[in-house]
Amino acid sequence: MTDKLDPKQADKLRNIGPKSAAWLRQVGLRTREDLAAAGTVEAFMRVKRAGFKPTLNLLYAIEGALQDCHWQEISDERRSELILAADAATALLPPPRYKPAAAPVTTTQMAREEDTMPVPTLFDEPADRD
Fold first, then answer.
1. How far apart are CA 93 and CA 98, in angstroms?
2. Measured over all CA atoms, what is the biggest interatomic distance in the chain, rounded to whole angstroms?
3. Looking at residue 58, what is its pLDDT?
4. Where are the alpha helices (DSSP H) in the chain?
5. Rounded CA gap, 66 and 62, in Å?
6. Residue 22, φ and ψ in degrees, nearest 5
7. Beta-ladder partners of 31
8. Looking at residue 48, what DSSP letter applies?
9. Distance from first CA to last CA of the chain, Å, rounded?
10. Helix 76-91 and helix 40-49: axis angle, to 10°?
11. Is the domain defined by 7-91 classed in CATH 1.10.150.20?
């Protein structure tokens, strides 16, 4: 039986919750076999390249799902290997497409002539009426 990464069966694949399953489906990884074929780091990188913001927990969750163990049971040595591989793959990504603003934007308003004329108030003396 194939473990699916669909919302109704997210618990079939260990460590993969609804949000992670949705991300993986959106990058074409719909079954455990798809995940195994891509591998832990490639699956993580597909999610990252798609514009999502995965954390290392997803990296560990995918590894745990493939090893059929809880993600916290992954050895420190294996975690370090995964981090190094993910960092190396991330370094190959193109820079972001957006450009930050050059400087803060300020607005200058010119005073209009009617803005500079005094406005009568309640306490002003009324004009002389002859």
1. 14
2. 103
3. 97
4. 18-26, 32-38, 40-49, 56-67, 76-91, 113-116
5. 6
6. -65, -45
7. 4
8. H
9. 103
10. 40
11. yes
Q: Token pair 């005094």 is at which residue?
A: 118
Six token digits for residue 28 = 């074409």
Residues in Cβ contact with 40 at an 8 Å cutoff, skipping those fewer than 6 apart: 59, 62, 63, 66, 82
The rounded distance, in Å, linking the Cα atoms of 76 and 24 is 25
Residue linked to tokens 């993600």: 71
**Quick one: three-class SS letters along 77-107?**
HHHHHHHHHHHHHHHCCCCCCCCCCCCCCCC
> Quick one: tokens of 61?
């969750």
What are the tokens at 2? 């194939």
Residue ranges of the domains in the chain?
Answer: 7-91
CB 1 within 8 A of CB 12: no
Residue scoring higher pLDDT (49 or 124): 49
Q: CB pairs under 8 A, 24+ apart, for 37-45? A: 40/66, 40/82, 41/82, 41/85, 41/86, 41/89, 42/89, 44/86, 45/86, 45/89, 45/90
pLDDT digits (tens, 9 = 90+) for 81-118: 999 999 999 999 887 777 666 666 667 776 666 666 66
